[in-house]
Design goal:
The protein is an alpha/beta fold and about 700 residues long. Helices cover about 45% and strands about 10% of the residues. It has a 6-stranded mixed β-sheet. A 5-stranded mixed β-sheet has the order 2-5-4-3-6. Strands 14-13-15 form a 3-stranded antiparallel β-sheet.
């Protein structure tokens, strides 16, 4: 029986499970088969190439030592042996080399025993010579030398030369064998490089095969839906597909059909790939994983061939799931480029993918799961129902979602008592799951750098500052004049945000250099909203211009420090005029063209309209600048206080601003204040639910 758990915004539920050990999602369930428990971990696979190598070494060994390795002597030494009558036979091989065989009595002589002992194991063989004269020179001259050396011997003790012709095939063909071996090794390694590894010859002849990685019962993925936080709506959509694979009868009895594909759409770092990993860990079916770039190759026809091979393997293991990450690499809209022709390799790959997903001979049982952060460039034929029946949006998490993500990433950290995930989520607006994971890791590194035994809230605040503004550079040399300009610039931002109703409230302002070129920065806590009115956008523009205006008012000059601010307000002003329809002269029109439907020019308006747009943008920015300047002049003393405090402390927080210039003159609560003031929801636990079906109990508890 599981202990009842309470989560924010969810009902408490007790689930009775039958004969099932608790599983935290990170460990594989223990097998009940005694044979599986007694299995030893498989060692490295034996390769037959070792046998080939050993046989080659043995062959070369015998080939080398089967030849005579006897001592080489000179002509003078041979002449002395012949004179003493110690030679029993002289064999001349191929009229170039002489082999000398000693008599039995000579072998026992002390002067020869030492040299004979150095011979190989074959030296005791009667067929092996005892000494060798490598170069005899002219054969007739050598014959006369042998006869002259034996003049003093009896006729019966003299030896004659035995000429022999021998063919040493190994010696003759060894250069060819070496050349062929070197060429074969070179070809072998080249094929491995081209084919990306594999057996003999690499995969040069299998280049059209799919590169998908298969996850099945032998290669279980340990990530489950419990590890995916902040994506509750997306999990419901994906879990339904997993539930269909586990319990198809539940849906087929009502006449329902499983979706053929689901497309995960969202910005980078929001958890699309993590969601796919959770599907691989939850679904008890084969899971093929690959990237869209795996279909791309320099050879013509390879992409389409890999698509065919992928679906062939998937149909053999159906029901199964295919996950294609970054599908926009092959799924771009066709016919958008006028340079490439109809035989474009990418288009051929896309055509084959479309056919396999919902073509004339499409079989059921294969579900396509894909992810992209560029849905606007995908081909319309790829997005239609029947191929991708569902488009699941995975957006940046809100306050509640960020709190759940923080809880997941804080599990493995040694935390202090002051850590509050709710407060951390409120201080990281707009952060995606990957950025939150980076903040947690940076906090741990910062605490370890300070030799702390646990991570406290200050470490997390420093980590957030580092992720937002970059690495702190306290040792960067800044002249007093530049530091003063930076202080007044950041104070101008703070004052503008403090006295504008719709501007984002200030959290922290600093003049400590960070990042590549940032000499100071101001951190705000924006209100989490999706719709903005024109007065809200204008207030945001005025707040962004606060730094430039402060320099103009206090120094009568401006610096290059407002470059990033000017870029932001320029984009915002053009968006108000050309996209959001917030200008009276231009009217209620939008010239945004993300899909490229306006053609290569990208401007569906005349040059006269373009001039009006430029004039209205300049007019909008000038009005915002003048409004900000009037406000800065009215609160000149307050800005002076903030600037002097920054020069002395370098960092000011919201409480410091309240102590210096008073509270913000607006009663509206920020999103952070509203969230922190909201009490946690608690509900009475419902009656226990007995789950009878063991196959579906885990899925029901997740739901």
């Amino acid at each position: 029986m599981e202990e009842p758990t309470k989560e924010s915004g969810q009902k408490t539920r007790i689930v009775f499970k039958r004969n099932q050990a608790p599983n935290d999602g990170n460990n594989k369930p223990e097998s009940n088969n005694p044979l599986d428990r007694n299995k030893k971990p498989a060692g490295p696979k034996f390769s037959f190439y070792w046998i080939y190598g050993i046989l080659a070494v043995i062959f070369l060994f015998f080939s080398y030592f089967s030849n005579n390795s006897a001592k080489t002597i000179t002509t003078k030494e041979l002449k002395n042996m012949l004179t003493k009558g110690d030679v029993s036979r002289v064999v001349v091989v191929n009229r170039s080399k002489a082999e000398i065989f000693l008599t039995d009595s000579a072998k026992n002589k002390k002067e020869y025993k030492e040299d004979l002992g150095k011979n190989t194991v074959f030296a005791d063989n009667n067929e092996a010579p005892n000494f060798v004269l490598e170069d005899i020179g002219d054969f007739e001259t050598f014959s006369r030398l042998v006869d002259k050396a034996q003049e003093s011997l009896d006729e019966n003790n003299r030896v004659s030369i035995d000429p022999q012709i021998r063919n040493n095939y190994l010696q003759e063909f060894m250069p060819w064998i070496i050349m062929i071996s070197i060429f074969g090794l070179f070809w072998f390694f080249m094929m491995r490089r081209v084919g990306g590894g594999g057996g003999p010859g690499g995969q040069i002849f299998n280049i059209g095969r799919s590169k998908a990685q298969l996850f099945d019962k032998d290669t279980k993925v340990n990530i489950t839906f419990k590890d995916v936080a902040g994506l509750e709506e997306a999990k419901v959509e994906v879990m339904e597909i997993v539930d269909f694979l586990k319990n198809p009868k539940k849906y087929t009895d009502l006449g329902g059909k499983i979706p053929k594909g689901a497309l995960l759409i969202g910005p980078p770092g929001t958890g699309k790939t993590l969601m796919a990993k959770a599907v691989a860990g939850e679904a008890n079916v084969p899971f093929f994983s690959l990237s869209g770039s795996d279909f791309v190759e320099m050879f013509v026809g390879v992409g389409a061939s890999r698509v065919r091979d992928l679906f062939r393997q998937a149909k053999e293991k159906a029901p199964c799931i295919i996950f294609i990450d970054e599908i926009d690499a092959v799924g771009r809209a066709r016919g958008k480029s006028a340079i490439q022709g109809g035989n474009d390799e990418r288009e051929n790959t896309l055509n084959q993918l479309l056919t396999e997903m919902d073509g004339f001979q499409t079989d059921s049982g294969v579900i396509i799961l894909a992810a992209t952060n560029r849905p606007d460039i995908l081909d319309s034929a790829l997005l239609r129902p029947g191929r991708f029946d569902r488009q699941i949006s995975i957006d940046r998490p809100d306050l509640v979602g960020r709190e759940e993500i923080f809880k997941v990433h804080l599990k493995g950290l040694k935390l202090g008592s002051d850590i509050d995930p709710k407060k951390l989520s409120a201080q990281t607006p707009g952060f995606a799951g990957a950025e939150i994971a980076n903040v947690c890791n940076e906090a741990a590194l910062i605490a370890a750098r300070s030799n702390k035994t646990e991570i406290n809230m200050q470490d997390f605040q420093d980590a957030v500052d580092r992720v937002i503004g970059g690495l702190e550079k306290k040792n960067k040399i800044i002249s007093p004049e530049e530091k003063k300009i930076v202080a007044y610039h950041e104070a101008g931002h703070a004052i503008a945000g403090w006295f504008l109703e719709f501007a984002d409230p200030l959290v922290k302002v600093s003049i400590v250099p960070r990042g590549v070129a940032a000499l100071g920065y101001a951190q705000y806590l924006p209100k989490e909203q999706y719709l903005y009115r024109s007065e809200q956008l204008i207030d945001m523009m005025c707040m962004t211009l606060g730094g430039r205006v402060a320099e103009d008012v206090f120094f009568g000059k401006v610096s290059t420090g407002a470059q990033n601010d000017l870029e932001k307000i320029t984009k915002m002003a053009y968006a108000m005029v050309t996209i959001y329809g917030m200008n009276e002269k231009i009217g209620h029109v939008s010239f945004r063209d993300d899909a490229g439907e306006f053609g290569l020019m990208g401007k569906p308006y005349s040059e006269e309209t373009s001039k009006i747009i430029d004039q209205e943008v300049r007019f909008l920015i000038e009005n915002a600048y003048q409004r900000t300047k009037d406000m800065i002049i009215d609160h000149k003393e307050d800005l002076e206080k903030l600037a002097q405090a920054l020069l002395s402390k370098e960092i000011l927080f919201q409480q410091d601003l309240e102590d210096l210039i008073g509270k913000r003159p607006f009663d509206t609560k920020t999103t952070y204040q509203e969230y922190m003031d909201t009490p946690a929801k608690t509900e009475e636990p419902t009656e226990p639910e007995l789950v009878v079906d063991e196959k579906t109990e885990e899925n029901k508890s997740e739901s």
